[in-house]
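Minutes, project check-in

Agenda point 3 was the complex the collaborators sent over. CS summarized: two entities, 966 residues total, and the question is how they sit relative to each other. Sequences were read into the notes so everyone works from the same version.
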Amino acid sequence: MKKENKEKDVKGITAEKDEFSEYFTELMIKADLVDYTNVSGCIAFKPVAYSIWEKIKEEVDKRFKEIGIKNVYFPLFIPEKTLMKEAEHFEGFTPEVAWVTRVGDKELNEKLAIRPTSETIMYESYAKWIRSWRDLPLLYNQWNNVVRWEFKNPVPFLRTREFLWNEGHTVYSRKKEAEEERDKILGIYKEVCEKYLAIPSLIGRKSKKETFAGAEYTYSMEFIMPNGKAIQGPDWHHDGQNFAKAYGIKFLNKDGKEEYAYQNTFAITTRILGIMFAIHSDDKGLILPPNIAPNKSVIVPIYFEDSKEKVLKACSVIAKMLKKYGVIFDDRVNYKPGFKFNEWEMKGIPLRIEIGPKEIEKKEVIIIRRDNNKKETVKIKDLKEKINEELEDIQNKLFDKAKKFLYGNFIECSSLNEVKKAIENKKIALAPLSKDEEIEDKLKFETGGAKVLNIPDEQPSVRGKCIISGKDADYYAYIGKSY
Amino acid sequence: MKKENKEKDVKGITAEKDEFSEYFTELMIKADLVDYTNVSGCIAFKPVAYSIWEKIKEEVDKRFKEIGIKNVYFPLFIPEKTLMKEAEHFEGFTPEVAWVTRVGDKELNEKLAIRPTSETIMYESYAKWIRSWRDLPLLYNQWNNVVRWEFKNPVPFLRTREFLWNEGHTVYSRKKEAEEERDKILGIYKEVCEKYLAIPSLIGRKSKKETFAGAEYTYSMEFIMPNGKAIQGPDWHHDGQNFAKAYGIKFLNKDGKEEYAYQNTFAITTRILGIMFAIHSDDKGLILPPNIAPNKSVIVPIYFEDSKEKVLKACSVIAKMLKKYGVIFDDRVNYKPGFKFNEWEMKGIPLRIEIGPKEIEKKEVIIIRRDNNKKETVKIKDLKEKINEELEDIQNKLFDKAKKFLYGNFIECSSLNEVKKAIENKKIALAPLSKDEEIEDKLKFETGGAKVLNIPDEQPSVRGKCIISGKDADYYAYIGKSY
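CS then shared the predicted structure for the full assembly.
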């Protein structure tokens, strides 16, 4: 989630309190993922939410390291002068920048920005560190916290003033080589989103209007939320030589001549947690994909007073046996089974295992899937295998369902009217457009706020007519309302 | 490293530019661990330094999780009102707090502190989250960045205005149970420091004067730097009910009565990197303990033009074979071996492997240890085993040497004169003292700045006379100048 710099025209407190935001916020709090703090727009990540972020980090980071990316850490603060060097970039961020102006009771001589992103401070160092073609490619990344003072209504994970992310900042000697990085990075984000979070996306290039402030072009992964609105996830930007020229990142090429370097940046943020939570949830609460769920199954004992001891003991033995498969045991004696069922459904644990005196006698248990409520009796001796089978199936079914929703949710259109109708019906349109910024402004106006999400690389073979101007279109673009 | 609140009397820019700081800073930059940025007092961690921090995090975090500690994430910002609730704590931090007062071009209604530590913001949430004895113990931790605007001369890792750390914040229903956590936490820090970083420490309780702002008592790990000065590393604090009372952290006990909870906090910071780098270094540069070194051995090819191809090829084959043992290959053809030797010695790689045409013919290589320069010829078939043997031995020898230095560096004293002499000779004194704060002030004055580092649990069996007052002492304490 990088800054979409042209969104600033909608400034001030617009308090976009649609029903989804309210539903979602309630869900996040009831599922014990976050809590509000008394810092406006900032949330506290509770253990389950943070452990999911840790897993995402781990999987992404492992893959980054495999392709030679190294982690570094740069300061939280950016001096005003440093931030201002690339004018377009600065303009894109400055309305949302939080400034430190004093320490203790002393005013600072130069105010310091809290990093909204670290291009500017990192690239001043890069300019010192890079001397020759031998220093390239330089493939650095950091995992950190950034602050962008959103004025819209905050929503846990989806829109918070501080968020966590990775920011990759790579430097190449050749443009082509820099551009070839794209598929690797987006491939990593895509793999982690699909394999672990079970969320499919629309990948494509941003229109000029929606390109990251300072970049030459931007690729994004767009997800569709249950309310039909699109939301941007991970992205990758090719900066060309824009920053290199502003910050003086030059290298001696093999012929001993000085050249400006080519740069990319890329990010995945804690917003992805919110996207996943929103996509996999229903009226009962969350549904966590097993590959990302810290706890995958919960044993709930069912007993009357006379069978209590026996049941608790048997559950405890089974729990110990299956601990390494992510099975936990809800041994709280002060809550009734019905309460526990509701709680674990709200928290989205993929499988529930019910064990009562009858089951113990027959050496079996009852398992209930969170995703489809399917109830099945399983022999204890088959339980381990069965759990793994069901978890794998849940993972696949969640992904299938999300894909079906995504692909069932967009409509190919060839006229403005068709697009308007699609947007009214909370769908995403795929329609031919000219690349003019004015065309996009008109589109937004005509559709009551829809915009170009991105432009897929794979284009229809026919060239359409722009739905706004009627002239030959430059591309087919995904169009929709965006969160 | 928590705030030593009574240090504030030495405020303003004191620019304590001792020789050690200059030597150390030069070393950190030459060894490619950090670079300055143009944010005063903040550094950029380069890949090797950051990967060492990642390893420390990983080892500590794994052990935390084994004892049931869970990670969370709280906001970077703390509203002024929240920070002020525990008066002593607030006073201890406020001169060093960085304040955000504006966003974009708008002044904020309430200024926000950048967290110097997160007790205050976390405990407001704890007060909401904790209801009953069943919610306890609550064992939460976060890994994050904090800011304390030091006015002393900044030194990479050892004294920076932003640093990275863990902050554990645990809550118990019983004081005894809370206090029993101490050995577990300090045991984890100690194990990681000794087993990976090869640095021994003096563990003990802080004197009242040096106790963390808001805590009932503090335990610290103190390390001795090559210049004879002590420096505080990880610490653990028992807060009693101080914060619980200020923030309203209450629970219903088993009898249904309301009680205030007991709390602890603990931390290890990126300062530990600096301590390790300082302890294991010599005139040639850094010496990295093999267990923490990201690269453990480097192959340097030695050739003339006629043997170049053959040597490079052989080295590459051996490097591939031994990659998983942390062996890297310096295949840069534009640098001479002598240059490479110096560079890798500066960077502290534990083992160097030299391979030339003669060695290839005899199917052997030469290995050189960084710690003692020992040179040995090894058959290639024995290399894997030999490398592991030598690395293990280097790890042990570095730790032995550091222990010898530590234990050789303190002197039992029974009079002020003896203590003065010890301090003059850059040693640490173990001497009997009264617990009065005034006594400590006098001690500091008399010794030209030495202070109580900490008070070991294991005390001499005889009770000494306080070296200042002459009365019966309360304890034997470690006394020394502190970094």
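Noted in discussion: The radius of gyration of chain A is 25 Å.
Follow-up: revisit at the next meeting once the mutant set is ready.
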